[in-house]
Amino acid sequence: MRQPLRAVLGEDQPFMREGIAAILRRAGIDVIEAVDNAVDLVRAAEEHHPDVVITDIRMPPGLEADGLRAAQKIRATRPETAVIVLSQFLEASYALDLVGDDPSGVGYLLKEKVASPQILIDAVERVLARDSALDPDVIAALLGRKRPEDPLAALTPKEREVLALMAEGQSNTGISEQLFVSVAAVERHVTGIFLKLGLNQSATGQHRRVLAVLRYLGQ
């Protein structure tokens, strides 16, 4: 019999913590510990070995980016654990800090989106599948940043749309449904993205997707 997925939750606001825990439990995810500070979050991840850690960015003890730093530490010491961070505000730089050099198994969501339980559960499913789950609003903010040498300048508008959805963690099928085009059309756009970004064809398809997303995020 398949064991339920196990989550550790970090959130210092009791109402929000209880609400997120309830959403996860209704989806059949076992919330093995819910904590209100970054120190206990790292301790709980080390102690329980959860499948996924979900945390607010701003938490005690410093009430700054303590939750983000805890998430980064968990990623470094337990790379098999998926991580989702929640933010009250749109902080594109935080998303870049969290992603580092590998966007797989990482999610970044605005807290307001958690009001829709399915968005959170979809994000959990994506990061557990080792995809990324980046909030579309964060992706839009990253796209709007000015860069002296834009590696995406050669992409068509449609290729940029496809790459933005890849950065959110969408599969080719998911992208086709979002853009109302065929999967074959998406595959052509993806191939065009790889070619224009100079990604080596000898690399695996999934590896090239990760590399493309990193180029998109400005790494």
Topology:
Layout: E1 6-10, H1 14-26, E2 30-35, H2 38-48, E3 52-56, H3 66-77, E4 82-87, H4 92-99, E5 106-110, H5 117-128, E6 132-134, H6 136-143, H7 157-168, H8 172-179, H9 183-196, H10 205-216
Parallel strand pairs: 1-2, 1-3, 3-4, 4-5, 5-6
Helix pairs in contact: 2-3, 6-7, 7-9, 7-10, 8-9
Description of the structure:
With 219 residues, the protein is an alpha/beta fold. It folds into 2 domains: 6-141, Response regulator (Rossmann fold, 3-Layer(aba) Sandwich); 147-216, Orthogonal Bundle (Arc Repressor Mutant, subunit A). The chain is 50% helix and 14% strand. The protein contains 10 helices and 6 strands, in the order E-H-E-H-E-H-E-H-E-H-E-H-H-H-H-H. The chain has a 6-stranded parallel sheet with strand order 2-1-3-4-5-6, sandwiched between helices. The longest helix is centred in the last third of the chain and has 14 residues, at 183-196. The mean pLDDT is 83.
CATH class of the largest domain: Alpha Beta
Summarize model confidence as the mean pLDDT: 83
Q: Write the H/E string, N to C.
A: EHEHEHEHEHEHHHHH
The CATH level-2 architecture of the largest domain is identified as 3-Layer(aba) Sandwich
Stated plainly, the CATH topology of the largest domain is called Rossmann fold
Please list the strands of the largest sheet in the order they lie side by side.
2-1-3-4-5-6
Count up the domains.
2
Beta-strand percentage range: 5-15%
* Helical/strand content category: alpha/beta
Largest sheet: 6 strands, parallel
Helix percent reads: 40-55%
Q: End-to-end distance, in Å?
A: 42 Å
Low-confidence stretches: none
CATH homologous superfamily name of the largest domain? Response regulator
